[in-house]
Amino acid sequence: MNRPETTDPAPLLVRALRREEVERKPVWFMRQAGRSLPEYRELREGIPMLEMCRTPDLCAEVTLQPVRRHGVDAGILFSDIVTPLEGVGIDVEIKSGVGPVIAEPFRRASDLERLRPLEPDADLPEVAEAIRIITAELGETPLIGFAGAPFTLASYLVEGRPSKSQELARAMQLEEPALFRDLLERLADIAIASLKAQVEAGVQAVQVFDSWAGSLSEATYREAVLPVSRRLFAEIEELGVPRIHFAVNAGHLMEAMAEAGSDAMGVDWRTPLSEARQRLGEGVALQGNLDPTVPLAGSEVLERETRALLAAAPERGHVFNLGHGVLPSTDPAMLTELVGLVHDITEKQS
Ligand code: 1CP
Question: CA–CA separation, 254 vs 218, rounded Å?
């Protein structure tokens, strides 16, 4: 695509996600762009989050900040899982200190009419424009694109705001399974369209965030969500980039989520990587999973915990990350230190 020659070796991140042998382990952080960085806070001042996502120059700058500062092995597009919803005309705002808030939450069948298909070229041209700027600046370092998984997006649309247990969404699934399924299918189509456009514009890996799937039982996940997520992963396979699937607090769903068919599973810090490897087998790469509070606890703890994690992590098919997003109170210097530690510890002598 935007790579000059097909003979170029793929980026380290892509090779690790394909479970190839690599010269050292790649590392990046979920939420590496954002409030932990003073340069981000300065740029964000007075600009609403979603407006920032729709301003290619600013979006590009914020995406590049953590790559420059920490030397991570990938950028992740600065956007949000609700950006495509705004793109199809849903009235959504990201409230500071709260998260996504939907003006008119989805409660009945007629609400589905508000969820038309996404046409990325017309609805979100700024995203592709930002990706083109970013990939030109990043050079060899790959850019990760992402989308919200159908269930997690549905939980915001139905609840109308962040919710701890997604009770309204889960009640809708129980009471009106056909309606809920229709909602998820439409959201899958939106995620697929968004991811296709991101790959066409130049992202070299994608992550699907089903952050809140962990509130479901395995039986409900398998019945209501898995078939839709499986279709999503099948439809983006042809894009030819590695696909990562991630949820929080979802250890009980690990096997079921892996059945959706991604190339890699993101693992939160509650499940040891050795256990994940044992339960999922060799066929899928793993990403994770340092507890995001470790970088708050000082250099000594950081080194001890990083060494312990790496000692128990699979040799092949592992991408180092936190078990969830960077906490806003994290000292960015600790993240820079962590990148250096992972590189030094995993570097192969050749
Ligand atoms: O650096 C990066 O990781 C890229 C930027 C990014 C990503 C990947 C943002 C910017 N959001 C996301 C994904 C996202 N958004 C997820 C999935 C990842 C996860 O599990 O954390 C989710 C659930 C959201 C929804 C969201 N957006 C929340 C969570 C609210 C809740 O339900 O608890 C919040 C707080 C936001 C706002 C947001 N998104 C991104 C940023 C930098 C912010 C904070 C905005 C601010 O500075 O006020």
Answer: 9
